[in-house]
């Protein structure tokens, strides 16, 4: 199967809160309407659409993951240095994100983990070349 583009679709409770959170972190907006807010991540503009939960139910047969009990996916966001990991940690805290893994070394890398206001999980990872 050949495809040109891949993106993610996630459910959220509050579009305004989600839009504010990702704007505060500096991600590039990709559009907003009454059912979704969308952002581009990384140099390749990986798109994540955040749909209101009611609109999202059709896609998952009303079986969205309970993010208080587990993970659906953890997105990794690259950092260029340990200092940048710490800068992003502060930005996430200031924007209202929840830190689930404090900054720490992992093999030769360094990372921390956070969740957005709806519980979608990310880690910020510096991995030296």
From TrEMBL:
Transmembrane segments: none annotated. This is Glyoxalase/fosfomycin resistance/dioxygenase domain-containing protein. It comes from the Bacteria. It comes from Flavobacterium saccharophilum. Residues 8-123 form the Glyoxalase/fosfomycin resistance/dioxygenase domain. InterPro entries: Glyas_Bleomycin-R_OHBP_Dase, Glyas_Fos-R_dOase_dom. Pfam families: Glyoxalase. PANTHER family: BLR2520 PROTEIN (PTHR36503:SF1).
């Amino acid at each position: 199967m050949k495809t040109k583009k891949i993106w993610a679709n996630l459910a959220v409770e509050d579009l305004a809160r989600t839009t504010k959170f990702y704007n505060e972190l500096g991600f590039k907006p990709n559009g907003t309407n009454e059912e979704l807010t969308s952002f581009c991540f990384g140099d390749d503009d990986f798109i994540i659409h955040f749909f209101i939960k009611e609109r999202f139910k059709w896609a998952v047969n009303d079986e969205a993951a309970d993010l208080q009990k587990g993970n659906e996916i953890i997105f990794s966001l690259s950092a260029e240095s340990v200092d940048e990991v710490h800068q992003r940690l502060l930005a996430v805290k200031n924007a209202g994100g929840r830190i689930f893994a404090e900054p720490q070394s992992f093999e030769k890398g360094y990372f921390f983990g956070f969740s957005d206001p709806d519980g979608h999980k990310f880690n910020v990872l510096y991995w030296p070349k």
